[in-house]
Amino acid sequence: MMKALLVGIGGFGSGWYRRLRNQYSELQLAVADTDESKRAKVEEDGVPFYTSVQEAIEKERPDVLLNVTPPHIHKEINHLAFDHRIPVFCEKPIADNYEDAIAMVERAEKENIPFMIAENYRAFPFVRKLRKLIADGEIGSILTIDGVFYRYSEMAHSDKTAILEGLIVHHFDLIRYLTGREIGKVFATYRHSLNIVMELQAGITATFRCSVRSKGKHTDWAGNWRIEGDQGCLELIDNQIHLTKDGATTLIDDFSDVHAPGPFTEFLQSLEEQREPETSAKDYLRNQALAHYCRESITTHQAVDTSASWGYGPMIVRNYYDMEFGPPSVSHHGKGMTRGKRLYSREDFDTPIMFLGYGEIPPGASIGYHGHREDEEVYIILEGTGLMTVNGQTRQVKAGDVILNKPWWKHGLENNSDQPLRTLIFEVLKTPAADK
C-alpha cells in the first residue's frame, strides 16, 4: 500500500485531509502539522499525527508528500522532501517568490524527483470539454481569448497584487491550456481592477480582467471566457458552454464524454506510469512567471517580454569549428572518404528535425546518389563548389546555395574542385499533419 504524508491541515489542508480519507482509501495516510491541537481529531480517525515533518518522514517513510502549507513555507517543506527523494504534490504557488520557485524546480529536475502543482481549474469537466471543442476544430484557428473574474473579498492585503500568485495564476494556466500556446508579452494595470493584455504565440491576443471588490454578480472560480476563432466562437458562461457558428448558437452542458481526473489522481497515475504529470512544477513555473512579469509591468507601466519563462535552461550554442570530427567514412556509397560533425541529433529537437550536421567533402570525393523516402533534406553550401544532382539533373553549386530535396527525391553531391567543399545538412521527418 502506498504511503502519503499530508503536511498542513489548516485552510486548504483540512479539505485535502477529508478528500484523501474519503476518496483515496488505497493510501495509507499520515499527517504533519505544527498545531498540536489537531492531534486528537486526527488520531481519533486512526491516522498518525506528527508536529515534526522530519520525524514523520523518518518514521512513516512516505512514498509521496502533499505540501498544503502556506506559500512562505513551501520552500522549506519541498526541499526537505527532496532531501529524502520523495515525490511532491504541492499547492500553488510553487514558492512565495519567483526566484525560489525557479531554484526549486531546477533541483527537482536535476535530481529527477517527481514534482507537481495542484492545478484544479483545468481539471473541471467544462474546461476539458471546452478544450476538446477547440482541438476538434469547432471554431477553427483561435484569434482572441478574453476572460473576466468578479468576486468580493473582505481580505485586505498589504500587497494587492498578491492575487496574481494566489488566484490569477489559475487563469494564466487556463489561457495556456485552452490555446496550447505560450504567452509572450504582458501589459498589466491595477487600479480598481486588474487588467491584463497578453500576446500569445501564433498571433493570438488575450485579455483578462479581475476584480475582488465587485458589488455585482460573481463569476464562478474559473471565470467567464469568450474565445473567438476564424470559423466560430465559444463562450464559457457560468460553467456552461455556448458554441456559435454558421449563425446559430448551441448550448453545451453535457461533459460526460471528457476524461477529467482530479489533480492528485493525475499525480498518482503519472507516478505509476513513470511519466511527467500534467501540471508538473516545470510546466507550472511558466504560470508563476506570468504573475511575476505582470507585477513588473504594473510597477514599470510597460509591456514585459515573458519569453524567458518558456524555458529556464541555458541558451544552446554549438560551434561547428570547435567540435570534433567523427571518423572519416564513405557516404551513401559515394567516392572517397568524407567527414562530418553531428551538431544536433533528433533528441535535441522538439520538432521533427532528424539532425543538423556539418560536413566536409575533399576534392574528388562525393556523397553518393540516394533518397530518404518520406523525409526532406536541405543542403547549405558554406564554402567551395561542387556538382549537385537531384532527380537526374546535375548543376554546379557554390557557397551560398541552398538545395531542397523533397520526399522520395534522389540526390547526391560531388566535389569536382581542388578545394574542400563544406556544407550544413539537416533532415526533417514527415509528420501525419503534413498529409492534411
UniProtKB/TrEMBL annotation:
Tell me which SUPFAM superfamilies the record gives: Glyceraldehyde-3-phosphate dehydrogenase-like, C-terminal domain, NAD(P)-binding Rossmann-fold domains, RmlC-like cupins
Which Pfam families does the annotation name?
Cupin_2 (PF07883), GFO_IDH_MocA (PF01408), GFO_IDH_MocA_C3 (PF22725)
Q: Where is the Gfo/Idh/MocA-like oxidoreductase N-terminal domain?
A: 3-116
Cupin type-2 domain location, by residue? 360-424
Record's superkingdom?
Bacteria
Where in the numbering of this chain does the GFO/IDH/MocA-like oxidoreductase domain appear?
Answer: 127-234
- Entry's transmembrane regions: none
What protein am I looking at? Answer: Gfo/Idh/MocA family oxidoreductase
